[in-house]
Every structure is written in C-alpha cells, then in structure tokens.
Amino acid sequence: MTAQLTISNLTDRPDFATAVADRIWRAWWRPHGVPLAYIAERLKENLAGGAIPRAFVAHDGETFAGTASVIASDLDERPQYTPWVAAVWVEPDYRSRRLGRQLIDHAARYALSTGARQVFLTARPLRRSLYEELGWRVVEEGIGDLDFTVLAWDAAAGPA
Predict the structure, then answer these.
(1) 123 neighbors 84 (Cβ within 8 angstroms)
(2) 1, part of any domain
(3) CATH of the domain at 77
(4) Any residues with CB less than 8 A from the CB of 101 and at least 6 apart, and which?
(5) Pick from 142, 2, 111: which is nearest to 59 by CA?
(6) Cα–chain-centroid distance for residue 87?
(7) 2-55, pLDDT tens digit by residue?
C-alpha cells in the first residue's frame, strides 16, 4: 500500500460504486433487513450530478479505502437539519491512519461549499468525543432508540 491516498468524488470514480454500496449496506442497513439492491439504487442518486447527495471515495490507486457522503437528511426525526455528513466508512486495512477524519473533513467542507451555513452528523455515544475533538458541537442528545447525538460544524468555526 502506498502512503498517498486520494479522495475523489464518486462521480469521477463510479468504478467504486459497488464497494461503497456494499459497505454502507453492511454497516447500517443489512441489520435492518434492507436489501443491498435498494442501497445500490439509492447510491445512483449520487451519480446524477446534483450538489446533494454526494458521495466521496478514498482510494489507494485502484484499491477502495473508505467513503463518506453528504446527504440532505440523516434523521427522519430532525428534518430541520440539513445537510448531513453520513455513511463514513474506512476499510479495516486503512484504519488508525486518520483517514476517517480526512473523509469527514472533506465531506463537511464540500457541504459548506454548497452554501450551507452549517453541516450536521449523528454519532452514537461512544463516537461523540471524536467529533467534538474535530470541532463539532453538540446540538442534541439522546435521539431515538440508538441514543444518537446530533452534532454541527459551522462555516464560521473554521476547519473541521
């Protein structure tokens, strides 16, 4: 593995769409009985060329390393918050290299570049401190059955 990873827009690297759909499905949707085909179909929205949704892929040449997305809404309970950084995934071989942080930063900066004044994400209690370390601030806690925390990063706050 080389030391130089690249983060690309999925529209520029659609060859990674199958890997992105698979990881999103395995991590968040398979446990709820959602078919992989549904996630793969939804991911095609990222290839349509609109500003949001947008998926990014980290890769080491032709090797998939991770992904992060910017979506309009990540919690049905909180439609007032938009846009969101979501579906952050790093392949096991690339963990502990700060790639997740890079993907989050890349996606957040992109979201703000669309004109949003702030961007949101959800975290489970065990992950909350990572986002706070990166400069995200808590907006709400204890949401839903999974006890999610909603965090925000403001354009005026500087780099994530």
Answers:
(1) no
(2) no
(3) 3.40.630.30
(4) 130, 134
(5) 2
(6) 4
(7) 458 999 999 999 999 999 999 999 999 999 999 999 999 999 998 888 899 999
In a domain, 150, yes or no: yes
| pTM for this prediction | 0.90
Question: For residue 71, what are the domain limits?
Answer: 6-157
Distance CA 105, CA 85 (A): 9
Question: What torsion, rounded to 10 degrees, do the Cα atoms 134, 150, 45, 87 define?
Answer: 60
**For residue 82, what are the contacts with CB-CB under 8 A and spacing of at least 6?**
72, 73, 116, 120
Which structure tokens are listed for 160?
């994530």
How many domains does one find in the chain? 1
Query: Does residue 82 sit within a domain?
Result: yes
Is residue 124 in some structural domain?
Answer: yes
